[in-house]
Amino acid sequence: MSDISDRQQLYEGKAKIVYTTDDPEVLLAYYKDDATAFNAQKRGTIKGKGEINNTMSGHLFKLLEAAGVPTHYIDTPSPNEMRIKRVKIVPVEVIVRNIAAGSLCKQTGIPLGTVLQPPLVEFCYKNDQLGDPLLTRDRLLVMNLATPEQLKSMEDLSRQIDQILSDFFSECGITLVDFKLEFGITSDGQLILADEISPDTCRLWDQAETDPNLRVMDKDRFRNDLGNVESAYQQVLARILSRLG
């Protein structure tokens, strides 16, 4: 870890601490081992998670950049740290669902494992106090959370990202079930991908496993007390590095 004692802490979230740097357009994100679920009602620690998620996100951001997706990624100066472009986060989370799981099944009764064609794209209000509620486009617009153009760009980019990541994870023997994305606006007005891409933000299933518990390779292992959380995260990173190596 680099010396951050002289940095100003800008923000601390559930998984990361963000610091300023000498460049006003560049920030430093420190990935923590802290783990939360159910809107932070469940808390814990996943040993090594910060380093794993930072490394994994860096590689996946570079993969997306190479495919033409703009991201906030600059580089990873240390195992737990990522330099990122400063953005104003759009308070809208984009959920992309390829297979029915989690809240979608609970809210709709759609059976777990149902393949969704085309993939379902949903918008949630990024607000912990309200529980990150699912919102319609019209509600998002009434609340002035994003412009119609921004919502269209976010959906288009999310579908592009889904195709790239689904193909890549499949090459790693992993099914990308669903995932969450966040976007930000740069100082010059560009909409780019932000936050992270990791087992914290993606639901990932091992294609070699059919058991509904054994196949889980993401934060659901922590969320649902399935055990072997650290090893699942490590396995995802190992497969990614092996594929990219």
Automatic annotation (TrEMBL):
Coiled coil: none annotated. Its EC number is 6.3.2.6. This is Phosphoribosylaminoimidazole-succinocarboxamide synthase. Residues 9-239 form the SAICAR synthetase/ADE2 N-terminal domain. GO terms for molecular function: ATP binding; phosphoribosylaminoimidazolesuccinocarboxamide synthase activity. Pathway: Purine metabolism; IMP biosynthesis via de novo pathway; 5-amino-1-(5-phospho-D-ribosyl)imidazole-4-carboxamide from 5-amino-1-(5-phospho-D-ribosyl)imidazole-4-carboxylate: step 1/2. PROSITE patterns: SAICAR_SYNTHETASE_1, SAICAR_SYNTHETASE_2.
